Every structure is written in structure tokens, then in C-alpha cells.
Amino acid sequence: MLLIHHWDTDGICSASMLIEEIGEEIDNMVPFIGNYFLTEEEKERCFGYDKIYIVDLALPEEDITSLLKHAGVTIFDHHLYKPIEGVKVINPLVRGEEQYRYPSTTWVLKEHFGRKVDFLAVLGVVGDNEERIMENRIFRKVIERFCKKEKTRFEDLLRAVHLIDSNYKLNMKKEVEKIPWLLRDMDIKDILEHPMWNRNNEILEEEIQEIVSNEDAWIKKGKTLIIEINTTHNIISSIARKIAWSTGMDTVVMNRGLDRYVQIYVRSKNNLTGLIDLLKEKNLKAGGKRDVVGILAEREKAEEILEFVVNFLEKNDER
Fold first, then answer.
1. CA 217 to CA 317: how far, in whole Å?
2. Would you tell me which of 104, 109, 265, 291 could form a disulfide with 125, CB atoms 3.0–4.6 Å apart?
3. Is the entire prediction scored with pTM above 0.70?
4. pLDDT digits (tens, 9 = 90+) for 216-226
5. What is the enclosing helix (H) or strand (E) of 221?
6. By C-alpha distance, which of 54, 53, 56 is closest to 11?
7. Helix 119-129 / helix 9-22 crossing angle, nearest 10 deg
8. Cα–Cα distance for residue pair 247/200, rounded to 1 Å
9. Do 2-195 and 214-315 have matching folds?
10. Which ranges constitute the DSSP H helices of the chain?
11. pLDDT per residue over 274-310, tens digit each?
12. Is the dihedral of CA 45, 49, 55, 60 positive or negative?
């Protein structure tokens, strides 16, 4: 069996939960960090497995179809996409459930397997939503009860997320793939005191703060903020989150620091599912949820895609 999962805290905790549920006779991998698709080399690595689980990762339909040729495929997720024939999909959003009831893939797994509210489930919820989860009345109560029971604080859970995520943000793919196994024997104290993860996080916090505080570099177009950065680190979502939440504006961050692709990350209070559909109709590498969209654009098309995204945000502003 092979487990393909996302590289962030929700994907890692979800992978750890699935390993607990189906047993240890499974290999795990994440795609090349930043790619929401499989390279040809990664597809070849999938050969020889009878069962493939995809967790917290909305891979393109053509990638799933290639896997189906030699393996049964099961997906656990909470992202939005159309079901693919022949794939077993455990995703409440696909059957019409609201996003706020399933804020993480860990929660989908918790419900599916009838697990109690445990550390992995809660950490995934906090990982995908950070401070904003406390605005969700249902999960605010869940987290408060959990913290009281475990004698921990929400701030500690948030810090743990940042420490775990530091590995993917610094492109440490092999380390990311080890963490689902490590988490099974770790508690909150182990994570908070992890020496390497703390060193990672110091590096990232300094870079993120430098970008976020440089408001002179922000470009305002209507009700949308555009921030261009140049970094090899995977911090685009962190920057978009901080700026969008502090300003209340739609935020688009473009990163030109990668070798081949330009990263474009969108965060909005409006519904972005229509944008995801339109981008996929253009055969672009894009995915996300109701309020966030990630795009990998070829360099020569990046400006065109940025303009398309900003125009969509302006035309579909519901505020």
C-alpha cells in the first residue's frame, strides 16, 4: 500500500491517523513540495502498489486516472473537486456538506473511523485554520474542551503547527515524510521542544515578518492587495493569511523564486470555487477550497493569470 499525502500539518496528521487505522504495512510520500500534481518520476514510484491512499491532496484528474490503471485508489479529503469514476472518495464536501463542519481532513478521518477527539484530529483542525478556527462556534468548543482535558493552551497548538510546518516551508521533503510516523509517539511538549523544528521556525519567522511589514511594496487594485515576493521557501500561504486577516482585503501573493513555476496564492472572504473551476478549464495547475486557491503558473503566463485572478475577485466581490 502507498499513502500520498499533503505536506502541511493537516496532511501529516491525517497520514498519521490513517497509518494507525490501516496498519503499518504502508509506504508514504509527499509530492515535490509546492506541486499539487505528480511528476512522471513520482508516477513511476507508484507502480507496484495494489492500493493507493491520497490524503488531504486534490491531485489533477489525469494523475488519478494514471494511478487507477494499476491500483485501487481511495481519497480522504476536504477540498472541492468533482468525483472521479472508479475512485472511492471519503469527502463530505463532495456530497454537499458545508466547509465549516469539516475544517480539516483529520476531522474527516476522525468521523469516518469513529475516533475520539484526539491530539492528531485537533492539530489538523488548527493547522488548516489557525486563529480563525476560534470564530467557528462548533470547533471553538471542541478545541476549548480538548485544551482543558489535556491541560494545554490553544497558543501551544498553534505553535506546534508552525513548528511542524517549518519542515515543508524549508523544502525538507524527507523530514516531512518521517513526521507521520514520529507523531504517533509524540505529545505537545515533544513538538514544542523539538530543537531542529525550533531552529527552522526562527529562520522562517524572520523572513515572513520582513515581507509582511513592508507595506510599501504592496500593490492595491480595487479591493485586492497584490504582493510580489522572491523566495525559495514555501511561505506564500503564510504571507497571504497574515495580510488578508490583518487588512480584511482579498490578497494575492505571487512568488517568483522557484526555478520553473511562479506560485500564485489567493485568499478571499468570497467564494472562490468558481475561480478554481475556471482555472482548471484553462488546464492550469490549480486547487483549493472555498476561501483559498493555489496556482502554479508557467513563467511566461504568470502576469496573464494574475490579471485573470484579480479581475475575477473584483467582479465577484459579494461584500
1. 24
2. 104
3. yes
4. 999 998 889 99
5. strand 219-221
6. 56
7. 160
8. 27
9. no
10. 9-22, 40-45, 61-68, 105-113, 119-129, 137-150, 154-169, 173-182, 188-192, 195-212, 236-247, 273-281, 302-315
11. 888 888 888 888 878 788 998 988 899 999 999 999 9
12. positive
- Amino acid identity of residue 133, one-letter, is I
Grid cell digits, residue 27 = 509506504
* Look-up of cell digits 485554520: 129
Grid cell digits, residue 263: 506560485
Q: Where are the domains of the chain?
A: 2-195, 214-315
Query: Which CATH code is given to the segment(s) 214-315?
Result: 3.10.310.40
Beta bridge partners of 292: 267
Rounded distance between C-alpha atoms, residue 280 and residue 233, angstroms: 25
Pairing of strands 285-288, 292-298: antiparallel
Contacts of 276 (CB under 8 A, 6+ apart): 80, 286, 287, 288, 293
Q: How far apart are CA 231 and CA 240, in angstroms?
A: 14
User: 237 φ, ψ to 5°?
Assistant: -70, -35
Grid coordinates of 221? 487594485
Alpha helices (H) along 130-265: 137-150, 154-169, 173-182, 188-192, 195-212, 236-247
Instruction: Kindly report the backbone phi and psi dihedral angles of residue 254, in degrees, each rounded to the nearest multiple of 5, phi listed first.
Output: -115, 125
Look up the CATH number of domain 2-195: 3.90.1640.30
Q: Round to whole Å and give the CA distance between 250 and 278.
A: 18
Rounded Cα distance between 125 and 9, Å, is 9
